[in-house]
Amino acid sequence: MVVRVSRFTDPHTPVEDRYECYECSAGVVAGEFPGPCPDCGSRVRNIAVPWE
Question: pTM for this structure?
Fold first, then answer.
């Protein structure tokens, strides 16, 4: 299988962000900040960014 990547596309930059709920650990994939967790209403954090 050959995967072609545009030379202008960074393969390490996510297209959609991944969020995780602080309380219930539910995962949410969204193009922009989704607001509160859809399952329990708690805060979510972006886990698609590196923690340094």
Answer: 0.64
